[in-house]
């Protein structure tokens, strides 16, 4: 299957930890079909990670929860992406979030947060 170029660029940016750019890449193609909950889930995931990076823990918790809700229906694999693995990652991230709504930027940067490298199986 030929995937949209923005989707493939999203995967690269995600793996580079450029979560703000991830959102920008997928938003354009999601805006064409807002019923696509897979893309919306990936958008929410990247926004949640972006919030965590800057200490907005409440925003991170909200976005990660939404990402899980949207992506769950696409298990196990969708668009060549191991969605089940992504969902496990979201669970790990949520467990690492402190019980506060906000932490300082310095605290956020000092957090040991799980990492995930995304791979797209282009044969799907």
TrEMBL record:
It holds the Pfam family DUF309. Gene3D superfamilies: TTHA0068-like. This is DUF309 domain-containing protein.
